[in-house]
Design a protein that fits this description.
3-stranded antiparallel sheet; 3 strands; about 60% helix; globular
């Protein structure tokens, strides 16, 4: 019986191979022959999944930009204002070898992708600049809209100038962007505070030696209104500003319900980012991979769809993770008797050993988070969260992923 191929997974593999070619040799390097060679498949095999090379480039470009957005979201969780701008700039500068304008130039598909993503970035950058103004970290006299366009143009420009053979003046892209961001606060970039590529690090970044607060002439987090502007105040102040602004603009807004969702979402995102960066990435996997391994360890072997339900992830996500973990010999994938389209997932001995070792570190970090509350508050919070989960489950609002 022919092997069943996950169509979307294979499209992703083809697009990723194409992006590697673009990064190494530019968009012109993407041909069906080169992509096939990079994947080690027969020439023409990618044509079963894409209409042609233009469609491959478009898909690869979209995946790369979506991945950039995801990394920004993870790193900027809990940040705002200029601190969040630093994160965005660092991630864009990481692509100086593959200027987005050059990738978009060959055809209407990639150009449309860049236009769509740039519009999305424009909205987000405008929000970050407005936050920075409210916190006092941005004092530049130019209108916010002008600052957004200047930053977008600057980032596209340093990408092009950093290309090999472009004749750059020797100043790193990071230094150029750092000077612009420092100017927003009326100051200059401070020596000794530069992160990768010369961009001063974002507040709360977890790399050794990074400053706790990104410097841009003034404090860059959302202030609490009392001028302190520390990281914790900035994290909490966004919720206060959001509640006030939504209430002003949309009378009748349920502010208590909005505060619940905002606070849960923001603290959950920060907690997950912390665990992933301090525990799971060092162990060699992602938070999502840990969730799947942990689920199989607790519940035993499961049909893939049931594992997805228990993990709170989509079937497609679990399928992709299972393939990766199976390649690392941590998960065993076994066709279900009587229905070879259904896969049963279970841990290998190596997977069990790795999970148990990682969970010890994971739980110690959980204990450190729990210790931030007293025992009574911790018990009360757990009781309330369980109550909320049960109520949502009774309303059939949980596990709607497909």
């Amino acid at each position: 019986m022919p092997k069943r191929v996950d169509h979307e997974q294979r499209r992703g593999e083809i697009a990723d191979a194409a992006w590697r070619l673009i990064a190494e040799r530019g968009p012109d390097a993407v041909t069906l022959r080169e992509v096939s060679a990079a994947l080690g498949v027969a020439h023409g095999a990618p044509a079963h999944y894409f209409a042609g090379r233009a469609a491959i480039v478009e898909c690869a470009f979209r995946r790369a930009l979506d991945d950039l957005d995801a990394r920004v979201a993870r790193r900027a969780a809990g940040l705002s204002g200029v601190a969040a701008l630093h994160v965005f700039c660092e991630e864009v500068i990481a692509h100086t070898g593959t200027p987005f304008a050059r990738v978009a130039a060959p055809g209407p598909g990639p150009a449309a992708v860049l236009a769509e993503v740039t519009a999305r970035w424009r909205t987000r950058l405008a929000a970050r600049i407005e936050e920075g103004r409210r916190a006092g970290g941005i004092v530049a006299p130019a209108p916010d809209g002008v600052l957004v366009e200047q930053l977008l143009a600057l980032l596209h420009g340093v990408q092009a100038l950093a290309e090999p053979g472009s004749g750059g003046a020797g100043t790193s892209p990071g230094e150029v962007v750092a000077a612009f961001l420092a100017g927003l606060g009326g100051g200059a970039a401070r020596a000794g505070t530069a992160g990768p590529g010369g961009v001063p690090p974002a507040a709360g970044a977890r790399s050794p030696g990074r400053a706790a607060v990104a410097r841009g002439g003034a404090d860059n987090s959302m202030g609490s209104g009392n001028g302190s502007g520390n990281g914790a105040d900035g994290f909490l102040a966004f919720t206060d500003v959001a509640l006030a602004r939504a209430g002003d603009r949309l009378p009748g807004t349920d502010r208590e319900a909005m505060a619940l969702v905002l606070n849960l979402h923001r603290i959950a995102g920060s907690l997950v980012y912390d665990l992933e960066s301090t525990v799971h990435r060092p162990a060699g996997w992602s938070w999502s991979a840990f969730r799947l391994l942990f689920t199989l360890w607790v519940a035993g072997g499961q049909e893939a769809g049931r594992a997805a339900e228990l993990c709170g992830m989509s079937r497609a996500a679990v399928s992709s993770l299972a393939n990766t973990l199976a390649a690392g010999e941590l998960v065993r994938r076994t066709p279900t008797a009587g229905d070879r389209r259904t896969v049963h997932l279970s841990l290998t001995d190596a997977g069990t050993d790795r999970l148990v070792a990682a969970f010890g570190t994971h739980n110690r970090r959980e204990s450190e988070w729990a210790a931030l509350l007293g025992a009574d508050d911790l018990a009360a919070l757990n009781t309330l969260l369980v109550r909320l989960a049960r109520a949502a489950h009774r309303a059939d609002w949980i596990n709607r992923r497909t």
